[in-house]
Design brief:
Layout lengths: L1 H16 L16 H6 L2 H21 L5 H46 L5 E2 L3 E8 L10 E8 L2 E9 L7 H17 L3 H21 L7 E8 L4 E7 L4 E4 L29 E4 L5 E5 L1 H4 L11 H7 L5 H16 L7 E8 L2
Antiparallel strand pairs: 1-2, 2-10, 3-4, 4-5, 5-6, 6-8, 7-9, 9-10
Helix pairs in contact: 1-3, 3-4, 5-6
């Protein structure tokens, strides 16, 4: 209303100051209710329409138009456009409420898939940055999870082939299978076999519905009381151990094939071991980070950046990484961006 009243003042003053009666500015006021109709409430729009009608009536009584026919046209237009503004405002607010309800439901469902960071178990804390390539989504093709099981903490880092909404179905299948099998299976290889079967079942259902089959790169870790951590790599980008000096990927041997493609490999998946004592930190990045390119086509120099941030707090590295990645790519992401920091606490 303050903006409507403020816009009224110069229009009325100019209307009264212009001596030429063939130049009239007061009809312009019939457009003012459009502003509260776009950004305000129905009540504010009604007040604006009433204010405009009062001001137009007062000005035309003081300085009438050449004929009563012209006055009638201006008043009718002001009234009709005012009614249209009120109706459009009511429709806009109703639609916004419906969209809000739909988005709230979508947010609740997506939060059931990926828990918000940080995640804390009895052995590790997982924090970091998760940025789906579709800005209006909370979940993309990248997945993560940490489960405190009777056999220690099990961690999952995964990346579904594709991005955005089409990849969410496979992501949900992997997450559900991991949460169930992590508590039941005593070995990582049995856990990975359960994930493999979940992806195969999902692809079989996708084939029936005409959707494309997908594979999932994944890295599964098992952390128990030992200072050595178990890992099964299913085609996922390597981990990085954050420490002073140059950063280097954790050597896990043959990365293996992604989940859903086990039938294409003659070699069974095996468990690798690497040192991960208490107080140390791991960094897991998706291929949205490792394969990010600048406008000139240069890949993002991840190891170089991690080495330069050796003295940085582990919890700040993920934030710095995404900021630097945004500068490197000029904000032009082509895949989901995930950078997760795992700090061993026991």
């Amino acid at each position: 209303m303050a903006y409507v009243v403020a816009a009224t003042v110069p229009i009325v003053l100019l209307e009264l100051m212009i001596d030429d009666r063939t130049v009239r500015l007061i009809p312009l006021m019939i457009l003012l209710p459009a502003f509260p109709a776009v950004v305000g409430t129905v009540r504010q729009t009604v007040y604006a329409v009433g204010w405009v009608l009062i001001v137009i009536t007062a000005v035309l009584m003081y300085r009438p138009l050449p004929s009563s026919y012209d006055v009638g046209i201006v008043m009718v237009l002001a009234f009709v456009l005012g009614v249209l503004c009120v109706v459009s405002c009511h429709w806009r607010i109703r639609r916004e409420r419906e969209l809000l309800r739909v988005r709230s439901t979508a947010v609740a469902l997506q939060r059931q898939m990926l828990r918000p960071l940080p995640i804390l178990t009895d052995r590790v804390m997982v924090d970091g940055v998760y940025l789906p390539v579709e800005a209006d989504r909370l979940v993309g093709g990248d997945v993560y999870e940490a489960v405190a099981s009777p056999y220690g903490t099990r961690l999952l880092f995964g990346d579904v082939q594709g991005k955005g909404l089409p990849a969410i179905g496979a992501a949900f299948a992997v997450l559900s299978a991991f949460r169930e099998a992590a508590l039941r299976e005593p070995t990582l290889t049995a856990l990975v076999d359960h994930l493999e079967q979940a992806v195969v079942r999902h692809n079989a259902f996708a084939q029936q519905t005409g959707e494309p089959e997908r594979f999932v790169t994944a890295l599964i870790l098992g952390i128990d009381t030992s200072t050595e951590t178990q890992a099964v790599n299913c085609g996922h980008p390597p981990l990085y151990l954050l420490k002073a000096g140059p950063a280097a990927p954790v050597q896990l041997g043959d990365p293996g094939v992604p989940l859903g493609l086990a039938d294409l490999s003659a070699k069974p998946r095996t468990v690798a071991w690497f040192p991960f004592p208490p107080g140390t930190t791991l960094l897991s990045c998706s291929d949205g980070v490792t394969e990010a390119r600048s406008v000139t086509g240069a890949f993002y120099p991840l190891e170089e950046r991690l080495g330069a941030w050796a003295d940085t707090s582990p919890w700040e590295i993920a934030g710095r990484l995404t900021e630097d990645l945004s500068r490197h790519t000029a904000g032009n992401y082509h895949d989901d961006i995930t950078a997760l920091v795992v700090r061993r606490t026991d």
